[in-house]
Amino acid sequence: MKILLTGAAGLLGSQLAAALETETQVIRTTRQMLDLTNPDQVQQVVQQEAPQVVVNCAAMTGVDACELHPQAAFQHNATGPGLLAQACRKIGANLIHISTDYVFDGSKADAYTPEDHPSPLSVYGKSKLAGEQAVQNELPTACIVRVAGLYGIGGRNFASTLATLLTTPGTIRAVADNRMLTTYVPDVVNRLCDLIKGQYSGLFHVTNDGIPSSWYEFAQAGAILLGTQVRAQLVPVHEAELHRPAPRPMNSTLHCTRSEQLGLRPLPDWHEALARHLKSDR
Ligand SMILES: NC(=O)c1ccc[n+]([C@@H]2O[C@H](COP(=O)([O-])OP(=O)(O)OC[C@H]3O[C@@H](n4cnc5c(N)ncnc54)[C@H](OP(=O)(O)O)[C@@H]3O)[C@@H](O)[C@H]2O)c1
């Protein structure tokens, strides 16, 4: 099988490429080789490479940057994926497209299932939802995978850099009034390999398992695991105190019902995933 990856230099794309390359031919594309905002290039590269499967790991992922630059957000996260799906349809390839928990507004008391109605709060969430719809319209066989709080080695976000933050003297202000289940990259990479091999279609939620936590509780669990190495002071804050441009859902816990129905094993508990991450990051 030949697989073409977009966003192959990103957090998820780089580790997915490395995992897939052990078993199959992978064409890693970066923004320079396949820019999602360049319709001709998208069409040309997909046609030229003629893969059986395309995995779209590319996106404009800065939630606050999207809020400040809505036009660019929609170009990257909505129009681009639609073009990619169209190019896939033309050559008979399937598309695995990565989306987000931020398509939900957080007002539900329980975890969100794939059947729940999305109602994004932020430009990022709205652009990603529009991307899901564009992909589904162009290519009904596509597989859409929503992840949440994605972290791993090489990432630049809070969870990815937690070990460095906790072991550096200073204060860490972590949001304590949100709730979610995070997604450790090596675990979602395994699930994406399952979905590619099984040629699945439709909408999937993929996160680690366990009891949902806030970012503060997540960091607290990290501090317990790092023990005497911790130098920072962890301070709980309300999301509103951070005055960030983009609103965030207070509950964005995803229920991975579809995987369960298909008999795919739940991903490991998030505490266990975090322990693996901190160990590999030291
Ligand atoms: N990180 C999270 O917490 C999180 C949570 C939920 C869902 N997700 C979703 O998970 C997916 C992967 O996220 P990630 O954290 O791996 O993102 P990432 O590390 O930011 O990687 C995204 C990649 O996309 C590339 N890219 C940006 N614009 C592009 C364009 N116009 N054409 C082609 N490539 C472009 C970037 O290249 P440059 O480096 O050149 O910009 C980068 O390599 C995304 O769909 C994201 O929305 C992420």
Dominant shape: globular
Number of domains: 1
Q: Helical residue percent?
A: 25-40%
- Number of DSSP helices? 10
- Small molecules (ligands, ions, cofactors) in the structure: NADP nicotinamide-adenine-dinucleotide phosphate
CATH superfamily membership, which one? Answer: NAD(P)-binding Rossmann-like Domain
- The SSE string, one letter per element, is EHEHEHHEHEEHEEHEHEHH
Give the number of DSSP strands: 10
- Biggest sheet layout: 6 strands, parallel
Radius of gyration, Cα only, in angstroms?
Answer: 18 Å
The CATH topology assignment is Rossmann fold
Q: β content, as a range?
A: 15-25%
Decide which structural class fits the backbone. alpha/beta
Q: Strand arrangement, largest sheet?
A: 2-1-3-4-5-9
Summarize the helices and strands and which ones pair or pack.
Elements: E1 2-6, H1 11-20, E2 25-28, H2 39-49, E3 53-56, H3 63-68, H4 70-91, E4 94-100, H5 123-138, E5 143-147, E6 150-151, H6 162-167, E7 170-175, E8 183-184, H7 185-197, E9 202-205, H8 215-226, E10 232-237, H9 257-261, H10 270-280
Parallel strand pairs: 1-2, 1-3, 3-4, 4-5, 5-9, 6-8, 7-10
